[in-house]
């Protein structure tokens, strides 16, 4: 690569709602604003990309159906699209988010176009290491792919350490944390929405996730049940997923139907997050917990699982709250304490907003990815 030229980057991620797709998309948007040409290669347009953006080109992965196939081989179709885009558009780097199966496709594409022409960067996000990658049928290939990537990043030190521990790999893994654009995720006057969701001045709690078992949504309802018994409160549930039917049943059985609102999947989370007083994220583990960082940037206190990487941006009792996800009583007590003490709540909001913007702001984190790309390409 010519040193004066910005690199041309291919990005692959899961396009549906989920933190890894959000990080990949926001990274692509920020890289494009800094002058990189960015090519998204995915099965669908990533959900935060649904507007025209200069310097961003989307390449859908075509998946032919053939009667012999029981399942269409997405990994191969993705590899083919990656190699075609790399050749046609002159990609310097293919940066994949979530190792399985994206790194496999990138590795194949690199073999097709030549290792001197295309570098592979893998960003590990979470369950690609902590759950899926450890399935016996995926373990050896995940380890192989980590070692075959030209660079590997992890979104927290927790995830880096976990990757080294589980896969016993000597690969040099760089921690580049998740980030938030504090101009987009910012406090805003939500009096109209507050009037709708909390007409009698109730406190508003929110949970936003893809409602998979790892998000521990039943704990959200149990904690909320205790909080609303102590003070007037309502709960907003944002997102959807496999656990939602059970969550609805739990809410009904607890007699909480009038205090809980289901908002479904919300693409523009930044327009709803600031309405909350407290975000609940009691996941069984969370390699980072991006939505908690976004909530902090919006001036919302985050009560987050202490299992995983959230302690890398939340200092318990200072800019947010960390608790064991099985400690329902402890989570409820912490929530009630902060919600019933306006001075403490305001202090946590201020600290959280400041820390999110200063240490995890988009510009300082995106710079770390650009420096990584530069280092990789300078080694040619
Ligand atoms: O690994 C996953 O569960 C999927 C992924 C996603 O797409 O939502 O979530 C992970 O990546 C996010 C972005 O880096 C992190 O904020 C989440 O903590 C992480 N999820 C888990 O570790 C459970």
Question: How is the CATH topology of the largest domain named?
Answer: Rossmann fold
Largest sheet: 7 strands, parallel
Beta-strand portion reads 15-25%
Principal-axis shape: globular
List how many beta strands DSSP finds. 13
- H and E order: EHEEHEHEHHEHEHEHEHEEHEEHHH
Q: Which CATH architecture of the largest domain?
A: 3-Layer(aba) Sandwich
| Ligands present | ligand GMT
Terminal CA distance: 8 Å
How many DSSP helices?
13
Uncertain runs are none
Structural class based on helices, strands and sheet pairing: alpha/beta
State the name of the first-level CATH class of the largest domain.
Alpha Beta
Kindly report the spatial arrangement of strands forming the biggest sheet: 3-2-1-4-5-6-7
The H-level CATH homologous superfamily of the largest domain, spelled out, is Glycogen Phosphorylase B
Mean pLDDT: 95
Counting structural domains, the number is: 2
Radius of gyration: 21 Å
Helix content bin: 40-55%
Quick structural summary:
The chain contains 13 helices and 13 strands. With 380 residues, it is of the alpha/beta class. The strands form 2 sheets. A 7-stranded parallel sheet has the order 3-2-1-4-5-6-7, sandwiched between helices. A 6-stranded parallel sheet has the order 10-9-8-11-12-13, sandwiched between helices.
List the helices and strands and how they pair.
Elements: E1 8-12, H1 19-33, E2 37-42, E3 56-60, H2 74-89, E4 93-97, H3 99-113, E5 119-124, H4 127-130, H5 139-148, E6 151-154, H6 157-167, E7 173-175, H7 191-197, E8 203-208, H8 217-230, E9 233-238, H9 244-253, E10 260-264, E11 278-281, H10 290-297, E12 301-305, E13 321-323, H11 328-339, H12 342-359, H13 362-378
Helix pairs in contact: 2-3, 3-5, 8-11, 10-12
